[in-house]
């Protein structure tokens, strides 16, 4: 691993995704979505933020299109990565290049957000706002900003996306339950699967899904598994969520899998997609996750 100096601070380089992608072991439905991927750089055009935790290699639109072809994906949501700070231009550019008829963006904001900017973004394909305050990203949740944004986006019927540590599911559950806004939880809430399905964070997630307009991304199995590929220890958690609200479950690749420094841990995107055979054993359920649910989330149906 290499590192370089940005000012006085050393920022480590992380790895890019595997070039080899396993083929799907099931028939991917026509119009399948990837609701969670990132486009990074090119850094000459879209510079990284100086306060980033690590420096990933560029993850280009051409690279993502290779993933699409390999997995049979046709639509999706590019999710803003904290690597780019509060500059969402990389995501808007990706939507324009990939096609605004099938691709949408999830943006990141600060207190400068205003009604006029939201109106522009809505026309450019933004459909959600992400608050990423998992410790790996640094920072905490700014509740005042969250509540401000929740009010501003309500006329557009956008969603709020949360990437947080598992313990925050417990700490924030009463507040999240009180919000009259659609919420999307990243990566199965980042729960520690070694603690079992009865653990407090996962039960808090279950309660939220049961009682509020909460959607869950069945993504990031590689990040929460303790056994590694093929991530069988994640399956009971995803299946339990599927039993409760199959119409609010989503799938995302999390490509290009930033933050990995050990090549042995870098996931095969085909293996991640094939987990849906365990999470959703029927063709109808897989179509719900890959096509029907994301279309509703994006306001297309």
What does this structure look like?
This protein has 11 helices and 10 strands. By secondary structure, it is an alpha/beta fold. The strands form 2 sheets. It has an 8-stranded parallel sheet with strand order 3-4-5-6-7-8-9-10, sandwiched between helices. Helix 5 runs parallel beside helix 6 and helix 6 packs parallel to helix 8.
Mean pLDDT: 95
Report helical residue fraction.
Answer: 25-40%
Largest sheet properties: 8 strands, parallel
Q: How far from one another are the termini? A: 46 Å
Poorly predicted spans: 1-6
Main sheet strand line-up: 3-4-5-6-7-8-9-10
Structural class call reads alpha/beta
Order of helices and strands: EEEHEHEHEHEHEHEHHEHHH
Summed up, the helix count is 11
- How many strand segments? 10
Beta-sheet strand percentage?
A: 5-15%
Looking at the structure, what is the overall shape? globular
Indicate the radius of gyration in whole angstroms: 18 Å
Topology of helices and strands:
Blueprint: E1 3-6, E2 9-12, E3 33-37, H1 61-71, E4 75-79, H2 89-98, E5 103-107, H3 115-124, E6 126-132, H4 143-153, E7 159-163, H5 166-178, E8 183-185, H6 200-211, E9 214-217, H7 221-224, H8 235-244, E10 249-250, H9 269-274, H10 276-279, H11 283-297
Parallel strand pairs: 3-4, 4-5, 5-6, 6-7, 7-8, 8-9, 9-10
Antiparallel strand pairs: 1-2
Helix pairs in contact: 5-6, 6-8
């Amino acid at each position: 691993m290499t590192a370089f100096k940005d000012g006085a601070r050393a920022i480590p380089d992380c790895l890019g995704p595997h070039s080899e992608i396993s083929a799907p072991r099931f028939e991917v439905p026509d119009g399948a979505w990837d609701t969670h991927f990132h486009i990074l750089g090119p850094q000459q055009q879209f510079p990284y933020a100086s306060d980033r935790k690590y420096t990933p290699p560029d993850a280009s639109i051409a690279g993502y299109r290779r993933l699409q072809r390999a997995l049979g994906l046709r639509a999706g949501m590019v999710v803003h990565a904290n690597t780019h700070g509060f500059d969402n231009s990389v995501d808007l550019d990706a939507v324009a290049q990939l096609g605004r008829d099938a691709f949408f963006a999830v943006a990141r904001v600060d207190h400068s957000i205003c009604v006029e900017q939201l109106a522009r973004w809505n026309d450019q394909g933004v459909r959600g706002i992400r608050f990423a305050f998992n410790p790996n990203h640094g920072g905490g949740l700014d509740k005042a900003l969250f509540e401000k944004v929740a009010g501003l986006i309500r006329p557009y019927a956008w969603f709020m996306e949360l990437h947080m540590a598992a313990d925050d599911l417990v700490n924030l559950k009463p507040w999240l339950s009180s919000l009259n806004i659609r919420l999307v939880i990243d990566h199965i809430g980042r729960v520690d699967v070694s603690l079992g399905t009865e653990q407090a964070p996962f039960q808090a997630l279950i309660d939220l899904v049961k009682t509020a307009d909460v959607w869950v991304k069945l993504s990031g199995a590689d990040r929460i598994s303790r056994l590694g590929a093929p991530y069988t220890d994640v399956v009971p958690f995803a299946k339990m969520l599927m039993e409760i609200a199959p119409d609010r479950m989503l799938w995302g690749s999390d490509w290009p899998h930033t933050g990995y420094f050990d090549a042995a841990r870098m996931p095969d995107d085909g293996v991640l997609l094939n987990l849906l055979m365990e999470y959703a054993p029927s063709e109808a359920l897989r179509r719900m996750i890959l096509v029907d649910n994301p279309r509703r989330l994006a306001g297309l149906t």
